[in-house]
Amino acid sequence: MDKFIGTMLDNRYELLEVIGVGGTAVVYKAKCHRLNRYVAVKILKDAYASDEEFRRKFHDEAQAVAMLSHPNIVNVYDVSRSGNIEYIVMELIDGITLKEYLSRRGQLSPKEVAVFTTQIARALEHAHDHNIIHRDIKPQNIMLLRDGTVKVADFGIAHFAARETTYNKGEAIGSVHYVSPEQAKGSHVDNRADLYSLGVVMYEMITGRLPFEGDSPVSIALQHINSIAVSPSVFAENVSPMLEEMTMKAMNPVLSKRYASAGQLLRDLEAFQNEQQFRLNISREECPIMDDGENDLDATRKLNNTGEVAALLEAENRNAVQNRPEQLERSILEEEEAMPKQKKKKTPLSGALIFSILAIVVFCVGAAAFVNAVLNPFDREDDSRLSAPPLVGEYFSQVVGDSKYADVEIVEGEYVYNETVDAGKIIQQSPEAGHKMEKGGKITVTISRGAKTFHLPKYVNQEARQVKIELERLGIVCVENPPEFDDEVQNGYVLRTDPGEGAELTAGDTVTLTVSKGPEVVLVDMPDLMGCSEAEALTRLEAAGLEWEDPTYEEYEGTSGQVIRQSIEKGTQVEKGSVVTFVLSKEPERPPEVTVPYRIFLIESVDLIQVEVLMDGKTVDSSTHNSSEISYSISISAPAGQHHMQVYQNGELTADEWVTL
Prior knowledge:
The chain is α+β, with helices and mostly antiparallel strands and about 650 residues long. It has 16 helices and 32 strands. Helix 4 (about 110-130) runs antiparallel to helix 7 (about 190-205) and helix 4 (about 110-130) packs antiparallel against helix 10 (about 260-275).
């Protein structure tokens, strides 16, 4: 049994069961006792938790990812540390991974591929806008919900782990099938690495198989660097040519020929799903075997590459250069040794052969000179080409009408939110400044929308801790006023915000929260209710500021309708508004009585006789009689049963008996 099962983190999250195990962490199903909901909790494995630097980066990057808020990204609710345990609290997903879905279905339909890819690309676009690169996009990190919604998981954690992991480690084997060439080489990595991995996922969805297989992780990584995948249509008969071209463009090993952003891929997917007749301008010449990187600026920016793949590549290139002369010399020697042991005669070239070779050379040189003279008679360079002007940082509205840009056509591209660039300014251009282009050529520009604005939601009467997390995700600075007492809003919940609900905000703005401390506690003395009537008891409770429940009744020998018991002892200090209960007395219930005659016989010794009759010790008759009466009768009433009867005549007991009624 896992040692953390049953653990309560921060007196809030109870770990119930293990639902997933990754290379660096274990994921548990947990119950949040504060919000009464189930969540997923990711905890670092012991091997990484003991590394203080790893824990710090884990916590910092998780905090950054918690700011992401998108329907296609698994939500991060909380990031915390409990003792020596670093953990992240995430949305609990009721679904399966895309990998599990592919294992069941094999090849997916073009519609499914497009729908799933669109949602993944939207998630990546949102993350890339926040400068977060996933670096571990694979079907195992993509969740499918029952309604078809896709959610991308492990944002921010996988890309940190990747920096510390080489492909000879077991936990990286699952990712090497989807790794980008620049990741495999240890070069500079940007958002295009995620798009390459997404292209591999698209390939697997279309064909039901991976583009590259091998005996070891290193051999697979080398294929990503040095090879082009076989076209998906070889394995899938019903694949759309447009979808195939999108997949191959996303998987292009040359960075400059890959999709530059998730937004570009989304536009092509939208056109595909709208069934517009379009064709991506991608030729097989744009997907060459990976060259030496001289033509790709990104490929030359090498970072601290300590991976086995890079080491192997470097060794291969070094051996190839060093061994070529040795191999050539060895092959010549082997050929000479294989020749018969005889004198080798040199065969002189004939004069006719030499003359023919010279004639051909002269003809070629003359033809080239003639062509150059006709096409460029004044020996000038072609002035139809020019360098793309620098547009980044300029306002789009100004450059469009500026005459100095008359030689090019400036095309309005996509608008994106940017926290640091004013709205309307150009933040990217294609082709880049200085790139050679034809006169009249097009330059497509990306324009800033400025900082993203939104209207403040209603946060009153919501848990303050959760509100602060949501505001931080939106880029809002959150501060708190001193908490205040409130009779209606419970402790720890938002009492009010400044500015209020509906205010228009921009990332970086400040929102001030006032949090409730709940109702103010006031103590009062419990009044004495004993012996009071109901009305008097209620008057005393109301005067003390206490509440009450309807009284109950108990049988009591004595005056009925009086308080005989109260739930809180008199004089006790209780919180104002507390509920008090009390009990009132009532007469005991008696069984129905039976009335029967009872005859008394008089003594004959005297004329006047004083008679007293007692039943169960109580006098039921006291009268004076003449002895001449002999006897007389009285009526006695009592509950059915036996009763003790006693008769006294002139003070003398004359009858003592039990009578059954």
